[in-house]
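User: I'm curious whether this sequence folds into something compact or stays loose and floppy. Could you predict its structure so I can see for myself?
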Amino acid sequence: MKKAVLTAAILMSVGVAVAAPAPVEDIAGGSTDDRVARLERMLKAKQASEYETQQRLDTLQQEVLDLRGLSEQQNYQISQMLQRQRQLYEDIANLTSSKAAAAATVTTTDSSGPSSSLGETASYERAVNLVLKERKYDEAIPAFRDFIKQYPESTYAANANYWLGQLLYNKGELADAANAFDTVVKQFNDSNKRGDSLVKLGMIAEKRSDSAKAKVYYQQVVKEYANSAAARIAKQQLAGL
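Assistant: Here's the prediction. I'll summarize afterward.
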């Protein structure tokens, strides 16, 4: 019974709709064209808003990418600073070992050795002290040169050449610095400064805008001194080429 009443009501509604067509004017009193125009304006406004929002999102995304790149660059620079600091600590540790060996040599010389050994040790220590204690770097350069000239076969010769190269490198005298580091590489295969000297030769090549040559030096360090501090620095330099 309820279904029949509902059906009858629907049919009556349809009949009324057919008999009395909807007016052209909308509820607000505008025509169909007005309504279409308003809808078009609303659509355009929405599209403009969405476009502006998308532009803002694109700008924010680019800013995030820029900040991420800056952060990565800063992390890399901090890592390099830590590596250089670590290398300095190792240099100081090596110097301490050298001074201990020098003290032992002095003791032996006092009892039975020739006086020339004492002169060799004292000359080396004097040059080193000019760097570490007195910070007279310009005076240390000729001191190391004199030592190398007088004692070319000394147990300290490799370290002396490395110190000389580092001092010259710091002054920007790259050609003479390269000669000193190259001496360590070619004449002192067993020296613990050979890997560091190869790294320095790579850095000098970079300063001379010779990336290919620098790459060769760094790769040699990584290959021959795989787990050393020098190899870690070489890998970082390679990543920056």
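Summary: The mean pLDDT is 77. The two ends are 89 Å apart (CA to CA).
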